[in-house]
Write a structure and sequence with these properties.
Order of helices and strands: HEHEEHEEHHHHHEEHHEEHEEHEEHEEHH
Radius of gyration: 21 Å
Helix content: 25-40%
Distance between the termini: 30 Å
Strand order of the largest sheet: 6-7-8-9-11-10
Strand content: 15-25%
CATH architecture of the largest domain: Alpha-Beta Complex
Number of helices: 15
CATH superfamily of the largest domain: inorganic pyrophosphatase (n-terminal core)
CATH topology of the largest domain: inorganic pyrophosphatase (n-terminal core)
Length: 378
């Protein structure tokens, strides 16, 4: 049985990470673009902890802090850039350098670089790392690091870490939660924070903009494969009409996923530069991270995403691949076996079927290569 003093995960290079942080005076901590609660909570918790040691800490994010997280300690200090080179830069909750956005430039200039992450699909990009793909959130890794560095967990730090855990687990409803997750939460609650108030603020409370976008999204939902696959899209006019931002649409995929019978939910969001920002959600072990990787993105088993150029043709290809992942392919209104399915792709919007190689070449022509292995994804 694992205890607070005997974590079950492995910290890769933790002694080197501790030494680097202890010997650095100016430290930048960056999270991923389009930040969520795990990223923001982890940035703020680590920043507050290192400031306790007297470090000069700079907090970075390529995009603004979503409204629901602005009440967390230190949130107002998160900036898009800082004016000088730092001793050490830490990337939190980033599965690749690209996830940093423009913050990657400042990250690359640092003398030392560290990554703290839990993504299953990832490409390492720092000199030292603390990585465990089995934990439920990056916030848990930050907690363990602070404990290892003998940094006290204050109420402010506890709120940030608990935000990370609540948001990343969809309020403790996703796979990947271990007994250690609840052990950490128990310790955080000992600081006296109000979990009900925090949960309402950072997860359950819905803004009017989010409610409006959710209504629009659900009204445009299209169901495929007997309702097992649902998808919808939000365009720039939808955002303008509701006076909302991209971040206001973040809860929408979960609402789509909650529809009875849905196994995979996909939200296509049009960005200001005319691209699709795509969010994938799944149930029952369907690995949408593989699907996102196919189109240049990544993520977790049940939650992943990518950004592609806006194209109806490419959108159809993505939906076809999602349908393949489901294992439900309708050809002439008949189901085919998984063995056959591994070698064929289907255009949901027409009557064409393609050999896997032909389909891969079609995607390659669209600047995307198809490398989805259905048998591994199941």
């Amino acid at each position: 049985m694992h205890t607070m003093n005997e974590p079950f995960w492995i910290l890769q290079g933790v002694s080197q990470v501790k030494d680097i942080l202890m010997n650095s005076e100016n430290i930048a901590i960056a999270g991923h673009r389009n930040p969520d609660g795990d990223s923001i909570g982890s940035i703020l918790a680590l920043g507050a902890g290192l400031e306790f040691l007297g470090k000069n800490v700079y907090l970075l994010c390529d995009d603004p802090v979503p409204e629901r997280y602005k009440g967390l300690y230190g949130a107002s200090r998160i900036a898009k850039k800082f004016p000088f080179r730092v001793d050490c830069a830490v990337a939190v909750d980033c599965g690749s350098r690209e996830m940093l956005g423009s913050a990657a430039h400042f990250f690359d200039l640092a003398e030392e670089t560290i990554e703290i992450d839990h993504h299953r699909s990832r490409v390492s990009f720092a000199r030292q790392s603390i990585v465990d793909t089995e934990v439920a959130s990056a916030g848990e890794l930050v907690y363990e690091l602070l404990e290892c560095m003998d940094i006290p967990i204050t109420g402010e730090i506890a709120r940030c870490i608990l935000t990370s855990i609540i948001v990343e687990t969809n309020s403790f409803r996703l796979p990947g939660i271990h007994s250690r997750t609840f052990e950490i939460c128990a310790e955080l609650l000992k600081t006296g924070i109000d979990m009900k108030e925090l949960s309402e603020t950072v997860y359950w409370k819905t803004s009017r903009a989010t409610a409006a976008l959710t209504g629009i999204s659900l009204s445009k939902c299209k169901f495929v494969a007997d309702g097992a696959l649902v998808w919808t899209e939000l365009n720039t006019k939808d955002f303008e009409k509701t006076g909302s931002t991209d971040a206001d649409a973040d809860p929408v995929p979960e609402r789509m996923q909650s529809i009875q019978g849905v196994e995979i939910a996909i939200l296509f969001r049009e960005t200001k530069d005319k691209k699709w920002r795509i969010s994938f959600r799944s149930k029952n072990g369907l690995n949408v991270a593989h699907l996102a990787e196919t189109f240049g993105g990544g993520g977790h088993l049940n939650a992943a995403g990518c950004v592609v150029r806006k194209s109806k043709k490419l959108q159809k290809h993505i939906l076809s691949c999602a349908n393949n992942l489901l294992g439900v392919l309708m050809i002439d209104k008949k189901r085919i076996t998984n063995k056959k399915r591994e070698n064929v792709c289907f255009d949901l919007y027409g009557n064409n079927t393609f050999a896997a190689g032909e389909f891969s070449q079609m995607l390659l022509n669209d600047t995307v290569s198809l490398q989805l292995n259905i048998s591994e994804s199941r």
